[in-house]
Design goal:
By secondary structure, the protein is of the alpha+beta class. The chain has a 6-stranded antiparallel β-barrel with strand order 2-3-4-7-6-5. The chain starts with a helix and ends in a 7-residue tail after the last strand. The C terminus is likely disordered.
Length: 171
């Protein structure tokens, strides 16, 4: 019994040490493969005007795992700036339900506090799901105009608006 306890303790200690090392090095997402924590320079002042970043592009998004909040989950996703506000789309095919079909959407639905990485800068924000029909249609048209194939029947969007997080980073 002592031997089994020592083995279990050793495995637990090894797991804790592994998680500490991973937390320090980040294990960021690569291209379109998900990762864990994002690394970079944290922007501590609230961003009220997103015109400081390129209008459209790809960025990294880090959310907290719904099943284990201290664990991070990061993905690559698109974003757009409209009226100096940053929006992130989440595209769903027919029959797929929000937030079930996207892992990061489940995380954001549970906890809207996310970290965005644009270039080498990290921004801590709170996501607000766009529910206003006028705002939604404006954003949908913006994406469909840029990529007409996104207007295919059966595809539907969910949009998130990045809003400033009060206080400093807690990640």
């Amino acid at each position: 019994m002592k031997r089994l306890t020592r083995i279990a303790g050793g495995l637990a200690l090894a797991l804790v040490l592994l998680l500490l090392v991973v937390r320090v090095v980040g294990l960021e997402r690569r291209d379109y493969h998900p990762g864990l924590w994002l690394t970079g320079e944290v922007v501590t002042t609230p961003v009220l005007d997103w015109s400081v970043v390129p209008d459209n592009g790809l960025m990294a998004l880090q959310s907290r795992e719904w099943f284990l909040p201290p664990l991070a989950h990061s993905v690559t996703t698109a974003y757009t700036i409209v009226n100096n506000k940053l929006y992130v789309p989440s595209l769903y095919a027919a029959g797929l339900q929000f937030p079930i079909a996207r892992h990061w959407n489940k995380n954001v639905d549970r906890d809207p506090h996310v970290r965005l990485k644009i270039g080498q800068k990290l921004y801590d924000v709170v996501f607000a799901r766009v529910t206003d029909p006028t705002e939604y249609e404006m954003l949908r048209q913006s994406f469909v105009t840029r990529s007409p194939d996104l207007g295919s029947p059966g595809l539907h969007f969910n949009f998130f608006r990045a809003e400033s997080e009060s206080g400093t980073s807690q990640r």
